[in-house]
Amino acid sequence: MSDDAVFVIDHSRCIGCRACVQACEECGTHRGRSMIHLDEVDAGPLGSRQTAPTVCMHCTDPTCAEVCPADAIKQNEDGVVQSALKPRCIACSNCVLACPFGVPKVVGEIDLMMKCDLCLDRTSAGSKPMCASVCPSDALWYGTPEEFAATRVGTLGDVFAFGDQAVTTRVKVVLGEEPGPLDVLSGRAPASWLDDPFALGEAS
Amino acid sequence: MAVTAQPEPRPAPAGRPWLAGLDRRGVLVGGGLVVLLLVLVYVGSEGLRWFDAALAGYLVGTLLAVFGTAYRYVVWVERPPTRALRARGWQAFWGSGRRLRNLARLPDVLWTRLVGQGFIRSRSLSRWIAHQCVFWGCVLAALVTFPLTFGWLHFESVGQDDARYRAFVAGLGTVEFESRSVAGWLMFHALDVAAVLVLVGVFTFLVRRLRDPGALAVERSGDFLVLAGLFAVSVTGLMLTVSSLWMDGRFYTFLTNVHAATVILGLLYIPFGKLFHIFQRPGTVGLAYTKERWAHEEAATCRGCGEPYAPATQVDDLRRVLPELGFDYRIDPARGGGDHLGFCPRCRRALVARAQSLRVGGFG
Fold this sequence. Notes:
heterodimer, A: alpha/beta, Alpha-Beta Plaits, five-stranded mixed beta sheet, 9 strands, 18% helix, B: mainly alpha, three-stranded antiparallel beta sheet, 15 helices, 8% strand, elongated
């Protein structure tokens, strides 16, 4: 795999097969524990549900590292934000509560924050991350931008707007044909038509 | 990227630009501790009477390590998130009206969090055994080396009987022991015992680091450096005993210098490297009390799903800390106001997923 390979997420393609969750448990840095969040989210006004996978986005200026009181979260030279350093992490959960993407997990019994390390053991050896290598629908994808352009539609985005805060990430998401920052607040839960069947709320 | 303005760095004092980057409080605390240690060395060694000049290099190394460690500690605890959590720890321990109960629980908290290190055992048994070996080896070595270096500990023969010795601590006679008894052997070979313990731990760690693909993947240079340092200190220390017992003292002076060099370099490494966690880890004691207190306090409720997701105090602390770090997660009042911290982690993930799917025409 080329050095300029990127990790790409397209939540809309997830089919909920949980292959990524199982494969993630095989990763050497956290064997037996999956770091993938596979959430069911409200997907439409009629109450439909959809699964959506989340991995660490590896922010270029990671909020989790900045709020860590133990100075335990570090980035490697490739910009990968690593799980907390084991000697330092005190499992306070500051990172869990500050991460705008809702990624880190704190494992209480081992006093440690854990999260996706982008399968460093594999990607550093030229292989795809476990989850991307098994995802059948390419919701989680790993390859070069050229491969993406040749085989997929849409543009890649790595800037997210969380209210007034812009966050740039190493992991990218698929956008439509229109590039530009992803306004996260645009993803607020769609209101159920049952709550307001005559759209009176919109009228007011 | 962050929208909050950063404070301008203070201008460097004229003619002393190298001082500009120093933390004044760190320098004061570090310098104060160095002076305090020098006074204690003078007093504890009865006016340097029992201070061994041959160990002066160790003392210089210790003083530099004390300054460096104190300096880094002060800078570390003044970081906004550390400062906030430290304040909560003291508040939970000392200001909650449960001081007696907290004090009574302290031995148990210290044991589980710092000494027994059960959290490491939960990570891996071999890792726990290795860490316990290194931990107790270093504790034992420190209990012998520092008092000897400072002139606080010396041994005298009892009367004219060279078979019996008495240990003196700060000029006060303590235990007597037969030099050829088991207790005597342990007393005079405590550093050898410590070195063997450390070596067992170092090799166990090394095997894991070389074999475990996960450990290799997140390897940092400091992980091997600290093992190499502990190995060097232990082996050169053991070689002194080997030289005196089985080599008729050959190379003893050379080995003494090499051993001193490894120890002093090790001491100088403490403030900069992995071993600094020795001073950071006790923060977990305060956190134990803080979490206990938070468990009885109000929880923050997610503005998305309405579920409680975290202690409200911790979320509010982060709201204060984030702007200090240059982050601004506030939401425009026209879009609902508040901030992004008001969403629970699950709702944050759902927001990103839905926002992304909308950009590509929706789910499915």
